[in-house]
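Practice set, problem 2.
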Amino acid sequence: MDIRFTEVLKVLTFTACAYFLSGCSSSNTLPTATLHPSNAENINSYKYLIGAGDVLNIFVWRNPEVSGSFVVRPDGMITTSLVEDIPVAGKTPTELARSIEKILATYLRDPVVTVTVNNFVGPFSEQIRVIGEAAQPQAINYTQYMTLLDVMIQVGGLTEFADGDDAVLIRIENGKQKQYEIAIDELLKEGNIKANVDIFPGDIIIIPEAWF
């Protein structure tokens, strides 16, 4: 093969590869994640919802053979001795108990079911997520009547580099994402209790780094 032709072929191959890669990098853009709102309309209407990772104790009266503890799978379902796939995520324990009664009615006469939860995890839509300059950034299981102070205690407060008074809280209200300013430094360092606010299920708290 002619040497000049070989060199030309190498150049064309390199150019084609570069064009292909540049085309891929410009077109492969992932869509923005959707924040799913909590089902709780206010702090007084909050009810715990079952989520993946929860451990459910299901008691069927007079039927110990179908009772037991079950771990909610990542797909939001559990498997029992009678039914392989029962959707449970997003339901309250009471709602799930009534659903299981309807399912078991096919196999048992007038089943009476009680559901309790251990190892609370809950769905992502109900968890509080704290990111940025918290001492221990993490997702926290929501507890009714939780406040900003409660959340900051759980994450260990702020780092020495945090700008707590420029922190923001993101919340879904009426299907729309809203952003609120919160003053964490005032709350923690100055003891201004007026800076303490109610936290709702699904809230996201972002704590920026201070500019020195």
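Problem 2, part (b): a different protein.
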Amino acid sequence: MTKKQLDESVNYLKSKGFDAPEIGIVLGTGLGQLVDHIEEPIIAHYNHIPFFPLATVEFHTGKLIYGTISGKKVVVMQGRFHLYEGYDFSDVTYPIRVMHQLGIQKLFVSNAAGAINLSFHKGDIMLIEDHINLQGGSPLAFKNVSEFGDRFVDMMEPYDVPMRKKIEQIADRNDIRLQKGVYASVVGPQLETKAEYRMLKILGADAVGMSTVPEVIVANHLKLPVVAVSVLTDECDPDNLEPVDIQEIIAIAGQTEPKMIQLFTELIKSL
């Protein structure tokens, strides 16, 4: 990744009309309905944006959408990138750097995740308070990282506290059951074994997924306040484990998404 590549991506999007968005949003697996709330959308397909990776997962559509939600200019990633698709950390986080260059001042991230904490249930939403990086690398571990920001980034509080408090207040007002916890990020794409679920619980994880952490690390590198939520689509009880049905996971994500949309749209309104 070079600054020249970033500039080319950003200039292309500006030429399409992506003008000074305030908020960037990353939509997770099965969580695409938020785009229906974007007013006057302008769409850029990933395969048209210079140096952008391509979404290879069938339920990730691969579009960057610019428009207005709750009176604020937003840019939304409909379809994200994962290490399990064969991409590296630089590819996975490239769109975050592009959105930052476009001008976003806040980043919202969503994902579908499995509940490790057995008091959480499928269909719950978990506000991420902290994370455990089990992906075996870092999006900041490249030679010229200091051209883009500090090499050593403090991660004491990676998720913005004021935005987290606002999400909690919005959930209270709207009777949305909001769990809070620690998200562990693994490579995937295989699901975890019973022993791995036990290990994650011992490590202090409340939920597990295959995304989010690289984007959050880069947001912190860019000093970009970030908030993230997990839609919990399955329960990972190693003593009562059943085979995972990916279609059921997508269906639960879709059923729970309206609550996530309400949290995000009201948060946008409050900023």
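Answer key, part (b): The radius of gyration is 18 Å. The CA atoms of residues 74 and 97 lie 15 Å apart.
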